[in-house]
Design goal:
Helix content is about 70%, strand content about 0%. The chain is an all-alpha fold and about 80 residues long. Keywords: Transferase.
Length: about 80
């Protein structure tokens, strides 16, 4: 690990520094949906909106945060169809 290397060498190996710098330079992914999107898709306002939003967010994260708004809405449609 980088901590073990830092303790042994007195500093992290340069490769770890480069990796950290690369990760810090990347844009943090932003989940493309909000509760209002679910209401606009036909859900009644209330606690179920939060539960469904959490389901879609978990699916989005499991996919590496790559799905865009359209894909997230399609996944939501599938969830809503399966629960109807």
């Amino acid at each position: 690990s980088w901590r073990a290397q830092a303790e042994r060498l007195g500093r992290p190996a340069p490769a770890w520094d480069a990796l950290r710098a690369d990760l810090l330079a990347r844009a943090r992914p932003v989940f493309p949906l909000a509760g209002g999107d679910l209401v606009a898709a036909g859900m009644a306002p209330g606690p179920e909106v939060g539960r469904r939003l959490a389901e879609v967010r978990a699916w989005w994260r499991a996919g590496g945060c790559r799905a865009d708004r359209r894909a997230c809405l399609a996944h939501l449609d599938g969830l809503m169809a399966n629960s109807a």
